[in-house]
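HUMAN: I'm a chemist; might I ask for a sequence paired with its structure tokens?

ASSISTANT:
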Amino acid sequence: MKQDIRKLTPTQIKDWFVQNGEQGFRAKQVHEWLWKKSAHSFGQMSNLSVPLREKLEMAFEIRPLSVATEQRSNDGTIKSSFRLFDGNLVEGVLIPALRNDDTLQDRERTDATGGPRMTACVSSQVGCSLTCKFCATGYMDRKRNLDAAEIYDQVVAIDRQAKANYEAPLTNIVYMGMGEPLLNYKNVLESVDRITSPDGLGMSAKRITVSTAGIAKMIKQLGDDQVKFNLALSLHAANDVKRNQIMPINESNSLKNLAESLNYFYRKTGTRVTFEYIVFYNFNDTLQDAKELWEFTKRVPAKINIIEYNPIAEANFTNTDPQTLDKFAGFLDAKGVTVNIRRSRGKDIDAACGQLAGKEK
């Protein structure tokens, strides 16, 4: 059986070249084709001889994902269903912050260079095991983790979409698609390394955000590894009784344990965490809920993104009304908490937060 060459280290590839009577420096050329030029076939490696490319073809394979379907939202968001080498599907989303989008503040529309902000939302697992009650992926079985190359390929594909449709490259990446990134820890961190390395895509780690439902021991591990990317916690309730109802993971990762792990992460990295909070009608939208959220932010240095709920067929949650939302956010703002209200993008094509389900449309 052929080996997946993208699972080998540069040293392992070099060893193969030497063992097969080839010059060792060729390994660096192959590595560059795989991770900097995003080659999906050995035939593309034009600075290698034809016999060498054929030899590589005999020994190894490259397992790129492909775009199975592509849907475009009225707001310019593009959702892709990606087919993996084994036939499984995951979804990824291009979220352009367009200049004529009046739901965004000026600072959200552009990146540091003044160009349009282009965000890729990528998946880390096929399905999910956490069964969050408001998330479409949570109603799927977890089939498997994605490997680092499959996550990397999503970024490459979405970057190409940004350039083709908006003549602008990706500026940001969020691991907020299908799956729980911290339950695929090794591959997620390896994918970040491929994306940020000068020998890879060369993006800044500060433009990457990994979102977790809250795996306390793995949050501490992020601190020990002193990661450079940003961390977001899907919070959605700041008391254990309510959070247990909508996020069963909280039963084994209580708010107390999460606060301890998040503070550990902050001490190790110096990076402030973002809390993601969906305000559900008649569930977590009272001033008492806002007070509990404020109290939790005093335990962990954080800012808050209030996220619009995006309906799914499997659940009957609804958004709170605008007046209640204004009171909720106003309470936090008056307490000096940094609060941003995020409007959903791509809801009409089921591309918004919580709606990804890996279905071929």
The longest strand covers residues 89-97. The first helix runs from residue 10 to 19.
